[in-house]
What does this fold into?
Amino acid sequence: MVAGSGAVGVNDLVDAAASLVREPLLRRALLETVLVGALGGVVGVHVVLRRLPFFVMTLSHATLPGLVVASLLGVSLVLGAAVAAVVVVGVVVLVGVAGRIEDTSGVGVVLTGSLAVGTLVLSIGQGTARDLSAFLVGSVVTVRPLDVVLTAGLGLLVVLVLALAHKELVLVAFDPAAADAAGYQRGPIDLLLLVTVAVTLAVAIPAGGVVLSVALLVTPASAARLWCDRVVTTMALAATFGVFAGVVGLVASAAWDVAAGAAIALAATAVLAGSAAIRALAPSRGLRRT
Amino acid sequence: MSGTFLAAPYQQRALLAIVILGVVAAVVGVHVVLRRMAFVADAMSHTVLPGVVVANLLGGPLYAGALVAGVTTAMLLGFPARARRIGEDAAVAIVLTSFFALGVAIVSRGRSFATDLTGFLFGSLLTVDADDLLLMGIVGGVAIVAMVVFHKELVLRAFDREAAEAIGLPIARLDLLVDLAVALVIVTALRAVGTLLAVAFVITPAATARRLGLAVVPSMLVAAAIAALCGTVGLAIAHEAGMRADVRVAPGATVVVLLTSVFLVVAVVAWWRDRVRSA
It folds into this structure.
């Protein structure tokens, strides 16, 4: 019985993998997952280096009102998420300019407040539980062709920006004092990073959802950090992990009928857990301590 | 106007639920805000999901599932990030998304995926019954008693960690106590406003009271009062919108939007006051 169900499980996986390539709708989902996985891995390295996970969490929850309004108006969810995320970045920068963001409770208020505003607007607009859960956990199989094009275009732009500003971003991340001494303006560099993170989240959220997109931006990068020291190699590995988790998650989702966003996030966690276990069992002599 | 909306017993129960939650969350929330644990509280609100989902599958009480998952998270987050190369905030985010994803994966196998999920995450304020209220009172009561018994130690640790260490207080265990109390608040909130909006009751009124520059205990009292006030007004708004304008408005979300608005007003006023003073 157990062996039988195991065999069925494997057959399901093979069937699911084949259907991902065969059926146009799933092929689009696969393409979107690969793009978002790679982008999340690359940008995620900066998120992890600069200790931005809480910011990412807040930003992604704060996009819910934008998603709700976009869906009520019938425009692209990427657009709604992007507008909301950029507004939040603006607010964070304003508050930062005003001087006091050492208090994290304000960020927490924004996070839950946005969730409430999103659900409230949705309830007034006669939205359903289906809509709400799709926003929260994503819906990669209903991603529109336009969303995929936007993901590819904006993703390329983000990677280009990160490549051009690479030296400055890394310097600020590892040695802010040296960046100041070298005469760099940290404000614009930080803003640039926050905007790229916001754009990345906006393209990831229709597929990954408000909560689970955070996993795409944190988990593969954290796993890659266990293996690499140099930033560029970490990014390459994180992108690989992101794509791998995306494809494995999508196949598992199609085979076992679980939500795709959840399966992808769990696959990413599995990559991290596997990496941590291997590193713990076989400590490398060459690895520098941080 | 409020006379009419409180006539229905289900509205009375909803208001009582908000008041119980408001008081419990205020007492715990001030400690959370004092030691800047907002992220941990938020993580907890996501990580209880698999516990709730499994309890639902097994037909057991949702509270018990949430409690088990909450305590597990508190224990996990209590350990300092083992691997140095994974920052503590990244570790919290990873635990949060993994647990949440596990819950979603399990619930998504079911037939009524979307309704179940949003029910767990956002509760159902108007269907709270007497048994729910009793459980809320008991679970919340435990959290309050824990905070009252260790009040002096918790406050010292929050304001002066070195001093607390110097006199030999167990810092890690005190932090775990607050984490566990947060788990209890989320369990308290589960049926009424769901796990996600529970954090708003923990953080927002307490952060508002702190912005007013109040001491610890007055902060708790004011935070509870803010929650009760916003609860009453929010329920009234949702009721009137449904009755008069025939607009369906989510009551729990309305209350949280009000809490957030009060915070924003107070935060702006406090910021302006500080500027005037320092100028």
